[in-house]
Protein 1
Amino acid sequence: MSHRQLSAHGLSVRFGERTVLADAELSVPRGGRLALLGANGSGKTTLLRTLSGAVRPSAGRVQVDGVDLDYGRAGLRAHRQVVQLVAQNPDDQLFAADVFRDVSFGPLNLGLTEVEVRARVDRALAVLSIEDLAERPIHELSFGQRKRVAIAGALAMEPCVLLLDEPTAGLDPQGVDEMVAALDALLAADTTVVIATHEVDFALWWADSVAVLRDGRLSCGSGPELLGDPEVVASARLRRPIVLQVAAALGLAPSGITEVSSLVAALSPHLVRKL
Amino acid sequence: MSHRQLSAHGLSVRFGERTVLADAELSVPRGGRLALLGANGSGKTTLLRTLSGAVRPSAGRVQVDGVDLDYGRAGLRAHRQVVQLVAQNPDDQLFAADVFRDVSFGPLNLGLTEVEVRARVDRALAVLSIEDLAERPIHELSFGQRKRVAIAGALAMEPCVLLLDEPTAGLDPQGVDEMVAALDALLAADTTVVIATHEVDFALWWADSVAVLRDGRLSCGSGPELLGDPEVVASARLRRPIVLQVAAALGLAPSGITEVSSLVAALSPHLVRKL
Amino acid sequence: MHIAEGFLPVIHCVAWYAVSAPFVIHGARKVITEAKEHPESRLLLAAAGAFTFVLSSIKLPSVTGSSSHPTGTGLGAVLFRPPVMAFLSTIVLLFQALLLAHGGITTLGANVFSMGIAGPWVGYALWTLSNRLGWHRNVGVFLALAFADLSTYLVTSVQLGLAFPDPVSGLAGSVAKFAGVFAISQVPLAIAEGILGVLVFRLLTDV
Amino acid sequence: MSHGLALDHAAWSSPWRARSLRDKGVLCLGLLLAAICLPPVPGGAAVAVISLALLLGPIRVGWTRLLRIGWLPLVSILIGVATVAVSVSWADGLRLEVTDAGTAAAVQLAVRALAATLAMFTLACSTPMIDLLAGLRRLRVPDPLIEIAALIYRFSAGLLDSASAIHAAQDARLGFVNRTATMRSASMGVAALFLRSWDRARRLEDGLAGRGYTDALRTLEPARRRSSGFLAGSVLLLVAVTATALSWPVTR
């Protein structure tokens, strides 16, 4: 999958009286890890749905490689092979009886031959390391497994950009580790990955760059910078990541601090001696 | 509500071939905050359901003030007025069209008069600060609001012990703050609160004491001690809380460290100067 | 396809209420007995009702490319039997009238008769017949669903024809008129609903 | 969270929700009855005007929402009215014609149906379904039936959300790209919805057992405001409409 440039310009979305997005600008870095941060109800899901073509903005445009998204039948069809969205709740996305059937749903609709469909399903399951689940009924799977099957279903469309809504929500630490491994495999397979989340600690650690949603507007930048800014996180109704709270309490600048090890590294020169 | 002593002795639960709990011992500290930690599928929910009387153990017993739980109709009825369980998914518990009607359901089942029921509903809504939602339709509420309504429904039974399954799952930072305020109000109203969670950072900060589920067995103790022990968290398929990871990396003992401020306080004497 | 609010003269409204009442009361009695013997069946019956309501409020693709709402009562009749469907359909039609502005209160009696009584009984009769004759299950399902839908639409045409006899060609003309107008959407929809039913049954029995 | 049933939303947010069902029932059902019993002109027309005034005034539905709610019944009324207006005969080959009698019947029907629809809206936009069910309970409809109806209402909200989520997910994976795909998607969606409704019921049963559910889903009714003034005003209005309509041919 070649990288393609997904971007949004002056995006506004209104539902009835309510303005969800207001003049949002976003350029998704090709082949990178972008985390989209915002509180519940801040419009993260709407933004992802707009980027995927499921919601048509009231104003502004979504572009792929600088070309406006065409909301006609053919245009949307082409867009869905570039951008795929994975919903927060896997049960909203899984509707077949077993894993193989569910993952094959998209490729079958692309009109591929059976051989090609099988190959795509196998590839998708392999990337997510769930080959062993292929024949299992979906209702017997754990929540974390269902989340990965939902991703496999989107991945089988072989999109260039994968948008994931709250991929780690509800997962325990081991589930998060497995999800991170899955995301790494996606990135290694040349897919651009965008996640929407309110889990600031995770986002700071995982992402190359972040975009914060505040009152329907987006601020983009580096994780430590944006998430370390008390004013930004407060107005986004988030909180600062724990390592940045520690850094701030000790008077350290946030830049470069994304996890425990970089915090410890930044701190070490200031300690009296190795404790 | 007077405090009563809920405990479990030699608790084993088997579903078919699968052993979920094996000889678990637990004594819930009266009027305290207990966090029950375990990975998904570790048996947290089963333990809560067993404590609430919904699941009958294969061996062992649940006791209130040293008296065995009687699984007859009357015994269970009495037990429900001592212990109430709030499920992780509020939609598993909310059935009525609006908040007022739903919260009135439990007290009506206790055979109270209309005046008493109204008083209980008002009290429960007040404790959770959701009086303004009373007449709202449940299907229009946000996830966090529905979670608090589900708690109000259990609280209206005026139990001595409230068991909450993953109360913060799916909530954003503001939602967590509101949930914490609700839990504080419960504690102030003399209710013992037990939460089951896999969110180690939250549990460490919130709880007075923790119990960790590993292979169907429970280890009880102080948060910093148990959650700071790499062996314990690894075998429980959890991870160490971030502040304890920082402390460990810097060679500090975990005891007394539960959040950013106590970490910073423990660290300060070892700094060259205030940065 | 329901008769809209206010569409029938008052005498017809009353008459159709009277015709439907015994069937609905019979169904309601069965439901009450079931609910008293097995309290948990309330939740399952409610699930069935909600399923019927949601099914009737989503758009189905029909074979001509237009889309319309399925009745869902043929499936219900096969799964839960006609008396229960008479009761559940009454609630579903009340919800459709007041939540979707589809149908009406004054025309509820007439709509219950076509969708909640005629449709399910025809569908159930064909399902039973097909089973007796030893036909393949898919044939029975297709016939039950397609004809539950078709009979609902034909009964509605007769109800409207009775209310508005054609000044030129009388009752026969008016029934033919309504049947003709609604055939455009309903015949393809009935076929689509039959096919869909076969596919759904296969999926459900696979699980 | 929001299944987007505009009528339901209007009912929950109407200032008239707090009024007692007795007061609203007399007015709204009275208007509905007047719409179908009285001669369409001027009875039906008067009901239509009054209902419209109530909807846009105290019930606070708003123009845009009223149009969104109203277009579906409007289209179905228009199709029916057109069918009545055109006469067919086939004695000497199929012939379509528009007669005076047919036109007159069609106009009468159009006014009556429009009036009745607007009258029904006054009830539907001011009273949540659950309050109507509570009213039926007071009319001695047996409890189990009311409980099942109330649960259908509650389940429907979640199931409608599931239906639209499943539809969106299938659409994103090109599930409606052609007729074969559409049929496959629709059947998978319907089967998934069926299983989900079942699962939902079982989990709720479990959850309710913990809250003391044994054989009845009793809840307390929220307080509602009764007003004899409102009731008297409603009766007066209905009497005035009826009297005017019946005396119309005489005075004209």
Protein 2
Amino acid sequence: MSQVKHASTNSVPIVEEKEIKKQKWSNLMAGLLYLLPSLALFGLFLFYPMIRTMYLSFFRTDTQGVPLRFVGLENFSYLLTSPNFLQSVKSTMLFVLYTVPLSVILALFLALIANEKLKGIGIFRTMFSSTMGMSVAASSVIWMFMYNPAIGVMNKLVNLFGLADVQWLLDPKFALLSVALSTIWMNIGFTFLILLGGLQNIDEHLYENAQIAGVSYWYQLRKITVPMLSPTLFFIVTVSFINAFQTFGQIDILTKGGPIDSTNVIVYSIYKDAFINYNVGSASAQAVLLFFCILIVTVLQFKLGERKVHYQ
Amino acid sequence: MSMIRKSILYLLLVVSAVIMMFPIVYAFMISFMSGSEVLQGRLWPENFTFDNYKAAFEKVPLFHYLFNSFVVSISVMAGQLLVSSLAAFAFVFISFKGRDALFFLFISTMMIPWEATMVPNFLTVQKLDWLNTYLGLTIPFFALAFGTFLLRQQFKTIPKELYEASQIAGISRFRFFWNVVLPVSKTSLVTLGVYSFLTTWNMYLWPLLVTNTENVRTVQIGLKQMQTQEISTEWGVVMAAVVVVIIPTLLLLFLGQKRLQKGLTQGAIK
Amino acid sequence: MKRVELINIGKSYDQKTNVIENINVSIEPGEFFVLVGPSGCGKSTMLRMIAGLESVTSGDLLIGDTKANHLQPSQRHLSMVFQNYALYPHLTVEQNIMFGLYTKKIQKPEQKKRCVEAAEMLGLQTLLKRKPRELSGGQRQRVALARAIVTQAPICLMDEPLSNLDAKLRAKMRSEIRQIQRKLGITMIYVTHDQTEAMTMADRMMILNGGHIQQVGKPLDIYNKPANTFVASFIGAPPMNLADARLKGQLLTFEDQRTLSLNSFDTNLSKQEVTVGVRPENIQLAQENETSFIVEVENVEVLGTETLITFAIGNNQQWLAKWNGQWNINVGDRVPIYIDQKDLFLFDKHDGHCLHAASTVSSEHVISKEVLA
Amino acid sequence: MKRVELINIGKSYDQKTNVIENINVSIEPGEFFVLVGPSGCGKSTMLRMIAGLESVTSGDLLIGDTKANHLQPSQRHLSMVFQNYALYPHLTVEQNIMFGLYTKKIQKPEQKKRCVEAAEMLGLQTLLKRKPRELSGGQRQRVALARAIVTQAPICLMDEPLSNLDAKLRAKMRSEIRQIQRKLGITMIYVTHDQTEAMTMADRMMILNGGHIQQVGKPLDIYNKPANTFVASFIGAPPMNLADARLKGQLLTFEDQRTLSLNSFDTNLSKQEVTVGVRPENIQLAQENETSFIVEVENVEVLGTETLITFAIGNNQQWLAKWNGQWNINVGDRVPIYIDQKDLFLFDKHDGHCLHAASTVSSEHVISKEVLA
Amino acid sequence: GSNNTNTEGDSGSSTESGKTEVVFWHSMSGDLEKALNEMVADYNESQDEVEVKPVFQGTYEEALTKFNTVAGTKDAPTIMQTFEVGTKYMVDSGKVQPVQKFIDEENYDTSQWEENISNYYAVDGEQYSMPFNSSTPVLIYNKDAFKEAGLDPEKAPRTYDELQEAAKKLTKKEGKKTSQYGFSILNYGWFFEELVAAQGGLFVDNENGRKGNAEKAAFNSKEGLSVFNLINDMYKEGTFYNTGQNWDDMRAAFQSNKVAMFLDSSAGVKSVIDNAPFEVGVSYLPVPKEADREGVIIGGASLWMAKGIEEEKQKAAWEFMKYLSTPEVQAEWHVKTGYFAINPAAYEQDIVKEQWEKYPQLKVTVDQLSETKSSPATQGALISVFPEARQKIVTGMESIYQGVKPKEALKRAEEEINRALEIANQ
Ligand SMILES: Nc1ncnc2c1ncn2[C@@H]1O[C@H](COP(=O)(O)OP(=O)(O)OP(=O)(O)O)[C@@H](O)[C@H]1O
Ligand SMILES: Nc1ncnc2c1ncn2[C@@H]1O[C@H](COP(=O)(O)OP(=O)(O)OP(=O)(O)O)[C@@H](O)[C@H]1O
Ligand SMILES: O=P(O)(O)OC[C@H](O)CO
Ligand SMILES: [Mg+2]
Ligand SMILES: [Mg+2]
């Protein structure tokens, strides 16, 4: 036995190292091979354009987006002082503020009542999640009709409460709210599905124990449901934020950014600058700013929000 | 559960359902109304007419658009499933240097707003000569960080021993992926599939940009087109188109709702 | 301390089939009452009905002296320890323990006091600030116990609280729970499917199978006088050996025509078709002239302390004999064995009822006072 | 049938600490070799190194006569049964069994033949078309076995294959596995932390603790002559009682000043600080005049077949005595007990090495040829 | 409606039947699209060399956006319909083929075209695009409502004062709710441009950009202010209805009696008359009392030919364009829609006479144009960033409803347009 040992202690390190290196190398290659499609596509359709966008944000471009002249930070400095862009930022922020908390709260409410064990609850769940199957285009058209000042149902509703007609989409005071309202409706389906799934993952026994202890519904909600749901809530809030920042379709169909730019959120402004005003430089600069906005909000979310999240 | 509690719950459920469903039902109703009924602002058609549907299909080649939407959605679905599952497989079953960093890179792409990349992407697609082709509508979406993430979480639940058992039996990595990992993760694949299908079906801005002809236009754009052409004058027709557009996805959603709900949370949170 | 009484209790989840039926039992104040039975027999269902987490389909449930069928769980004044502990993962040990107290309109200082007391009793003092995930299985178990204790409810329900623990910790927790119950004088209703737990902890135990009561009584009484074959084979490890046989006069004939004579039997049994039962430790190596029959050894497992010998009897029945010590026997050896008539159990072959129980000789095992000095 | 040899094997996951070290053992062709040890001692790690699923950090691994350190798992010609079976949930039993065969370039008919043979051997014929989720635990276990068998690999590795089964099924599977191994003459390396399994199945066993070999040998030899306190308390249930004592001349003094005289000891031990060991079944109720000492009973657990009596010895050590039958003893009773000198084990107090083992009287338990007829 | 479910690719230069395919992007919707498709179908029937394929691409703005993305690639359409204010952009883009080339090659007689119209699309003496659908803005009013309000239905308001007076009378209130408003202007830059030009005001400097690239906005003038003031005053009085930016919404409001008078394109006249359940009057664009009426700028759109495509296709497109400008086709186009005939000979056609008989309103639009005095103001502005400029004007109009002072609103629009011009000019 000792002979074998001697023989091997001499030769092992070299062979071993080689073998290990070979193994590692082949693993790396295999890994990259499997990742290749993703990497290639991300590279071409995400990283390259992102970098390209950053690059273009320092240029004046021609109508086809070909850079003409390096202007440094001029695009940014103009944007940051331009009342229009500031209005866009304000609209975006307001829009996010209107839609995210309300979607989540309403969806949570729906998820809570749909999480009870009742007869026929499946039908309600299906109905509550239905807007996930609705496209933005279809939903927006429906809402557009509902907002129609003359024949739409929204004004009928308002009249029912004895109030005067509202120019939902034409009055800058209401336009953003109206778009937000329809967006909340559109978001609820997905948010609801996610939250319901989260609720169903909570251990039933936690509630049973609370029942035996005799704590109230609200106490359970506050002390069990919300903390236990917090990872799900965190996820859905993050996703909702990102989505809210990227809202486009409903704005294009309902208001086209108007009236007086009150619904001209950054994404829409990017679209207009890039494709209507042929100002790709400015559009790129806005895209870069939007990216940082989302990044900051997401990072903040992770920094502040995740502390309150209870992972099991 | 006490009767009172039950009744309150049902009341809340019904009221919420009415509010949630109202716009959809309303659209259905309008799609069956005659023009004058619409203008009177009625909620319920006096006699159901299918004229609007006939008109909708005449005005815009809806069938063709539906077909396009199906082709695009199915392709993106298949593409995303394949590309994402390959990537997820690498992240779970192959250990190599820099794997975690790469994974983080993948996840971070979720933060890049699609719009921020829209202009260069458009130019790329144009250069590739993919405007007005299915390629332009599908390929850019094949890689999906969310899908990779979801599947990675699922693959991680596959017992390591299954992989090891195949290693001992001398089964190749790809065969293991294809014959074991994919079939075992059917549920998650279906979840991701439904999700992909729905989101692709509902895609709006990109098809708006990259299609100019009826050849590959999707139904959402058809809807938009219908709306710019016919709005105010023929709401009934527009709503008929809306109904035609939403029915496939609603059906899919109703069928896949349970699975989707489970699969989505499973992948999303843990 | 309160009595819990079940009168004709039945439960059906689907309005069609009953998962438990005709349960009549009265659990005395301060008693440690154990519910045992195989998986799916309805133990949890019964416990949850007592807790009010499941509605009672038929019959009456009395807690104390009031009918409790429709009381809310919180009005029943009981505590419950769940099988999986049901600790709140986001709360600290301390918060977990005090979770239910706020509703009881108890002042903060008093809450704190109770919590500290319970923690001390269970050795959790140093863990109060931890989250459940930072605890070992046994510690979690104890937190769940503490949470039940602080409510000072007169009745405590536990659903297989030890099933997730390893053998060593389980043994320790068994005695801890028993001690706490005695100290506080709680009425305890304890569910398990582990018979060692049942045997060592119970004042009385109830054996359930398929939703029906098989037997209720003191553990040893049940061990010694099992009501039927189910109880006989469920209690005792390795389980009692059973085989069908015919009883003709004083002669017991197995299916393989082996016979045992029962000359010393005083009971005159009318039944002819019986199931014979004998515990593995009562199958002995025959001394000279005592041989009951010779068997061929099919398997030998020497466990160190004891040796398990497997042999065939009847039609393909395998019996086990358990002998102390290490035996040098080989598979295929033919061994003479002896079964004492008084160690035999006889059951009705058809309904399994016990016709005759082995006579226990517990007198033999009482240590005489003199010896105890 | 192949030999597996481990020479100076060591393993480190983090390049810093070794989880196993200095493992030298040679497993003979056709041997049933069992690896036991507490959780986390490195059993799985060792098995996985042999399988090639984990790299070998140091030392040499020989399979047959070739060095196998860097062979791919598939090149080692072995089969493995995983703890959780690792069945492919989407494939039928048949497909599962044949899954690995295609790579072996075996014709379809031959594959089928082997599958049917294995299925017959394991009683799976009627289950071939089912999916794993439609099988009971024991059936799954057998499918995993079948999958290992059909490869006809000369070496089979099993990692705690029975740990998820209930006691009854486990007993059954133990003998089945043993029978198959004998029939096929495979070299089996079997990991478990259950000592009953180890004792009953092994030709030889190895006890690991903290990554180090504690003892290798035949099960009974290990039971009777444990190399150290760890082995002594790991093998045997309930475990051997241990207490520290001083040995002066012929007198053994416990920490509570109780004494035992060792007059019949022939070995002259030089050590004074010892750990005394005695198995629970060897602590007997004293007959007249034999009393070793009188103890106060701290706990009594009557299990039916046997009674466990807990008492204190030394500084707060708890010892267990196991007596057959049901004893009517109460907590607090003072009981005279007797420990035969020949049942005593002595260990070095500091390193735990066995200084003296109890003398086994296995001769007593060999059935005389005459009796066997 | 269109029944165009043709699904073959449009990249091939010829269809199955061997015809040269000409893709024609347009922005004609509703009745206009119907008329257009009929014309195209007739043309396709009439010969077997060329197959024209009309594709609707949304509003003028949307279509131009689309065109911009594909201009110069193989995905570009052969013929592109672009509104008048896109002219400068199209010229500057370099991606279009001026039709002058074909005019020269064939010595095509352009004098048969209405000069007022073709001039708009001629830059530096070169004919860039083919005039096709030209319109002017008109005041459309509800004659029944006029009667009801005690106004003379044959005498539409000509000046701002008259307009305001009439609007007051036409406004009907029921409690807090106004059931009928007097007047409305779509929030669309074109109407502002026209109202300014009607008073002889310029939109941008350098003679509306025709003397060289426009550098500064010029509408922040007396003329511009009077327009904003009008809107502001009427809105404050509650006689003005804000219909938003959608043409159809505005027309629907008129048809449903929500509004009694509004400004529309002449292209809408025919369809409004056909659909309104009451008698419709059409009149000239109003001007302030003190201003001289200069006339109107030609509106609508023209047809552009893409550059860099196969000669064969260009030829085919040219053939189609020529077909469109024949008197017969133009006559039909005029009576079906209300657009002008670019070929005045069309007005001599029988169907026109017939229809004028039936729809005297159609003639009003023609008269308004022929009375127009030619000047830089009525020639219209040439700016490359016109779509953006229009958005700014719209924002200005909208902000008036929010109580922003007309002066203020005008100034803001001016500044923003100046910036856009500055960027575009470098
Ligand atoms: N919510 C339910 N709906 C329908 N059937 C149920 C429900 N809960 C339990 N059952 C059924 O009732 C029977 C008794 O279940 P129970 O949980 O009481 O068994 P148990 O004795 O606690 O078993 P275990 O030891 O496995 O926990 C089982 O057959 C089970 O399938
Ligand atoms: N992949 C790994 N990375 C780092 N440490 C590991 C890894 N796998 C095991 N270990 C450590 O190595 C030691 C031995 O683990 P191993 O799995 O071999 O134990 P085991 O004897 O099989 O225990 P068990 O009976 O619980 O299965 C443990 O301390 C474990 O924490
Ligand atoms: O609607 P049209 O075609 O008359 O065009 C109106 C304007 O001229 C568009 O700029
Ligand atoms: Mg249970
Ligand atoms: Mg292990």
